[in-house]
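Practice problem. Given the sequence and the SMILES for zinc ion, write out the predicted structure.
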Amino acid sequence: MLRIVILLIFCLFVCSPISAQALADGSRSKPKPPSSLYDGYREDRVHAYIPVSDIPDRYPIHVSGFVMPLADVLVTSVYGMRCKKMHRGIDLALEVGDTIASAFEGYVRKTGYDYGGYGRFMVVRHLNGLETVYGHLQTCLLDEGTEVKSGQSIALGGNTGRSTGPHLHFEILFMGQAIDPRRIIDFAEKKVHQPTFYYTKNNRIVPNKRPDQKKEILCHRVQKGDTLLSIAKKYAVTVDELCRYNHLERNSKLRKGQIIRYS
Ligand SMILES: [Zn+2]
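Answer key:
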């Protein structure tokens, strides 16, 4: 009888995947991506790395657990070249103090303050292999190394660093390589385009479906001197369209910092 009990305890310990994983990771409290993608890379920078030769030729990324970082989604600037510099993320309007949620589960890889750029920021490393960056924060609610669930509150939005108004700068990285968030996320619908993507070394990302630009809501933050006409010209739309999108009259006065939808 004693032998059977000992055998059972032995089996429970050795055969349990959780035990094996915990032993492999050396810790239960800090979940890691499901492979050794980031082993050996520097942890002390936002963009940590990385010899491109180390990037897998093709890597599946499961994103079905995605939660939109903000409850209200107004895109004020998209990924791409901006004023001759690469804008590696997407900007979402917010009010200072708005709660920001983690897009996926994982753990807080880094927090810090970058005066000339991100301001207060947080980098979360996810179990699906991605990392997400949250910039211009007012407050980080979690310390480095803390586990996070998808949708868990991680920070409060702000206007820190190189920022012209309160917003969230949101980046998606894979092994240090920035991905256009719109390739993965439909910001109008607040959901992912599909549950799994493949990151490929050559194409950067990904499959299968391009973002539906028509459905997307894009916005402009009013600067000093802006008028409905100047905004309409800037984004190649009509003043009437701006009025319709924003419930304004043609002679409505704009105030600095106001968010104007233009698509
Ligand atoms: Zn930005």
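Check your answer against the key. Confidence is low (pLDDT under 50) at residues 7-28.
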